[in-house]
Structure formats: C-alpha cells, structure tokens
Write a structure and sequence with these properties.
The protein is α/β, with parallel strands linked by helices. The protein contains 21 helices and 16 strands.
Length: 511
C-alpha cells in the first residue's frame, strides 16, 4: 500500500495557528519601504495551509479569491468547514502537491504563499512547487516563503537527527507520536547531562532542548519529527527559485528592515561594502545567526520613482491596535532588547492613541515641527507594525464589502470557544487579517452578542459555560476551586477587557 504521507507527520493534527506574514495586505508597506511596485492581489494561493485558519481569515477579510491545498484530509475538512461558515471565496482541497498542480480549474495567481512547509518536504515536492510557481504566478506576482535557515540550525541539526532516530527506533509502538516525542526529549536531556563533547562545543543546545519542552507537542511533531527536515542557506533557496524567474524582494518580517536593532554599527558598515545584494543576505544571516527566514520574492522586480513611492506611503492607512498605556518603548531584534527613541515614538503613539484610522501622511502633518523626519516616521511604522502594535488598514469601501463575511466567520469561531481553547484568533475586516482574541475574551464577546450588560454579566455568562464542563480558571499556576473565586477572577478579567481590549476590537471591526 502506498504511503500518502510521504514521511510527513499525519497522525497528529497541526496547531490552529494564525500567521500574519501570510496576509497579502502586508506586501504593500514592505515593498514600498524598498521602493518596489506591489501587486493588487485578486487571486491568491496557500500551499500546505495546515488547519486553514490563516487562509480562511484572509479569504473572509478580503475580496481575494483564495485557493489552497493541504494533503491531510482532516485538516482540509476543517478548513472547508470554516469556508462554508463565512461564505468566502476559499477553495481549499486535500490534494497532494503533484495533483494540485495539475488541476485545470486554478486561476493564475498574484500571490502564492508557503509557511514553513518548504523545510519539511522532499526534493521531489520542491521541484513540483517550483514548477507550479513558474507556471501559475503572474508576472509581477509575489511569492511569500518561510523556511528554516542555516547557519542558525547548524548546531542543533545533529540533536534533531538523534531525537528523530530515537522516536523511530526506540519509541513505543502503538503509543503515538506524542509519547515518542516525550521519550526522545527525555533521552536527549539525559544525554546532555553526561556532558558530552558535543554539548561542550555547542553550549546552547541544552537551552534549546529546555525551550522545546515548553512547546505544544502538536507543534513539535510537525516542526522536528518529519522524515524530511532541511534547513537551507539563502543562496540555496535562490538557486531553487531561479527556474521560476523569481527575484528576492525583501523580508516579510518587518523588524528585519530595521538595521539598528539587528546589526552593530561595525556589522552595518561591513555589509555596506558587500556589492552583491544576494550575497549580502547570506552574510547577514551569519551576523544574526538566522534560524528562520520569512521572505518575499517577486516575478519581475520593478522600481517606483521616489515621488510615487512617497505618495503611496503617505496614503497608507494605519491604526493603533495596542493599549497605549501598556506599550513599552522597547523592541527585540537580533541584538536583543533595544530601547526606542521616546522623542520619536511617544508623539507618534500619542497621536494614534484614540484607535482611529489615519494615514501616514496625516501623521506626518500632525508631527510637523516635532523634528521627526519622514524617513523616521516610516521606520517607526515598520517597527510598530512588526511588533504588532500598529496594523495596516484596508480601504473603507473594502471594509464594508467584507464585514458580513468576517462577522459570520467570527460568530462561528466564537461559538467553538464554548467547548475548547483551540482557536485564539478572529478575523478583522479593517486589517484584512487575524487578530489575537483568547478563549475567555471570545466568551465575553459572545455575552455582548447576547445583550449582557457589563463585565459582571459577561463573567457570569462565561462561568456558566465553563462550569457546565467542569472547567475552572487557573491563576498564577493555581486552579481556583470555588465558584466565588472563579467569578471574581472572571469579573476582574472582564473589567480589564472592557477597558483595554474591547475598544481595540471595536476599532478593528470585531467587537
């Protein structure tokens, strides 16, 4: 009997994650910052969509026609369930890549996306994907691809190999992948405790093992325990994509665009002397010990003239999506934690604090006389958006068009929150993407939909749902046992929700 999994973990479902870099709306600012033309995305495709949460959120929150495939039929089934709930133009299938590439009913695409999947598939499937991109990505179209990268994985790759060998050879038959993962992690820890020369030469391996133990086992199964696992140098990726006529555009991870938080002055000067832009990316990966790249590639790079570039940047709509008093003027890059310049960031954040939509150009006018230059404002928008504190906003006409679909999808997801904690994202018609909303907050939103008056009533509503399933709140690692304790904590959370999260959710079209 043929193995339809091709060595990929299929006996445990992928996590219900949402990945903001997959949102086509984000192409615009990244490309504009590099002075590049960006496409209008009318047709998009996600290859290896997992549970399909990202694909469905992006389909519901846009007028883009989405297609995609994930070979796991249970995951494809869930993705189709979400598409039916929203009524979005999302055509999500369980085809293998080879079969999907041969479908005659696929349009040509403005945008094709792969999140992580490239690192976990065979060379045969990589060839199929590259040929698919070559044939189906339009001229001017964008590929988003993320993948495990060298040199960041160089030290840990032997340990990963050891753990997968343990899981395959010594794992208990019939106990499932989770049991085998736990056994492999325990074995690896015991090995490190013997102080082998390998761990002395690679002292960070032990720390990474400890961090692995904290992760969801579903995530670990797909991240580390597939048959194929190939971290790849940037230059090797470029060689793979060359037959599809793709050129590297820029990083899709906005923080990567800010050299000051990732590179020392000496490193910046060294990179500036590297004449070849592709080789420069390889050198940069060594400087930051890159483990995971999130990149945009384009079929036919075209430069914007400086006047047009500045005009389109100024027209970009933005919205503060974090509670202003809670925002710390710190960010994290490859160099670690960095302090943001308060003379630049405080005035910008203060102008955005009302959670009203504005444009970068309007911000520039309001900041006139502050000494903040346009280039500094653009960098601030990249950094704040990359940190999740600012979101890019769609045109008003588009927001109105998609609101019905996002409402239907969110209602469906919120009803699922009654029974489990699987999905912690809802769809925003304002940003065109997903927004983090945990289970308890979703229950509060459901209470509001049921016309419950305020935080106390929202807490009571949530407690009725939780207590019916013998579930209790955990606070600071301790389970709250009594009804009074649970209601008190839920009421506290509801009051914080009303003061901090709800105004933002209303602003992004969710509340």
């Amino acid at each position: 009997m043929s193995d339809w999994t091709a060595g990929y973990v299929a006996d445990i479902g992928y996590t219900y994650g949402y990945y903001t870099e997959l949102n086509p709306q984000r192409i615009r600012l990244a490309f504009l910052s590099q002075g590049l033309h960006f496409p209008q995305v009318g047709a998009a495709c996600e290859l290896g969509f997992g549970q399909g949460l990202s694909a469905n959120i992006h389909a519901a929150a846009s007028i883009t026609e989405w297609h995609g495939t994930d070979f796991n039929p249970s995951q494809a089934g869930f993705a189709q369930e979400l598409a039916a709930a929203s009524g979005a133009a999302a055509h999500l299938r369980d085809d293998a890549f080879a079969d999907f590439a041969l479908r005659p009913d696929l349009p040509d695409f403005d945008y094709i996306a792969l999140h992580g999947i490239w690192s976990w598939i065979s060379d045969e499937n990589r060839h199929i994907i590259v040929d698919f991109i070559r044939k189906k990505l339009k001229v001017g179209g964008v590929l988003y691809i993320s993948y495990n990268t060298q040199p960041g994985w160089a030290a840990f790759a032997p340990m990963r190999h050891l753990m997968t060998e343990h899981a395959e050879l010594l794992g208990s038959e019939g106990c499932g992948i989770v049991s085998r993962i736990d056994g492999a992690l325990e074995f690896a820890e015991k090995l490190i405790e013997t102080n082998p020369l390998f761990s002395r030469a690679n002292p960070l391996v032990g720390d990474r093992l400890k961090k692995m133990k904290e992760h969801n086992r579903h995530y670990l199964a797909h991240e580390y325990f597939n048959k194929d696992w190939h971290p790849m140098h940037f230059a090797t990726m470029a060689d793979w994509l060359e037959p599809a006529k793709l050129q590297f555009a820029c990083s899709a991870h906005y923080i990567d665009h800010i050299d000051s938080v990732n590179l020392t002055p000496a490193q910046q000067a060294f990179l500036a002397d590297v004449p070849d832009p592709m080789f420069r990316e390889t050198v940069r990966d060594f400087m930051v010990n890159q483990q995971f790249r999130r990149d945009y590639w384009v079929k036919g790079e075209r430069k914007l003239d400086p006047i047009n570039q500045a005009e389109v940047i100024r027209a970009q709509r933005v919205l503060l999506t974090a509670h202003r008093p809670d925002i710390s003027l710190k960010t994290t890059g490859a160099l670690g934690e960095a302090e943001m310049n308060s003379a630049i960031y405080d005035p910008i954040l203060d102008l955005l604090a009302d959670h009203k939509v504005t444009t970068i150009g309007e911000l520039e006018k309001q900041l006139d006389g502050s000494g903040i230059a346009f280039a500094q404002l653009l960098q601030a928008m990249l950094l704040l958006t990359g940190a999740g504190q600012v979101s890019l906003v769609q045109d008003e006409v588009l927001i109105i068009q998609v609101r019905r679909k996002t409402d239907k999808l969110n209602t469906y997801l919120i009803h699922k929150a009654r029974g489990n904690n699987d999905i912690n994202y809802l769809a925003s018609p304002v940003t065109g993407g997903g927004f983090s909303v945990n289970r308890i907050q979703q229950l509060f939103l459901m209470a509001r939909q049921q016309a419950k008056a305020g935080p106390e009533d929202w807490a009571q509503y949530a407690w009725v749902i939780l207590s019916a399933q013998n579930q209790k709140i955990i606070k600071e690692g301790k389970t709250l046992e009594s009804e009074a304790e649970n209601l008190q904590e839920l009421t506290t959370q509801a009051k914080v929700f009303a003061a901090k999260q709800l105004p933002i959710l209303i602003a992004v079209g969710i509340g």
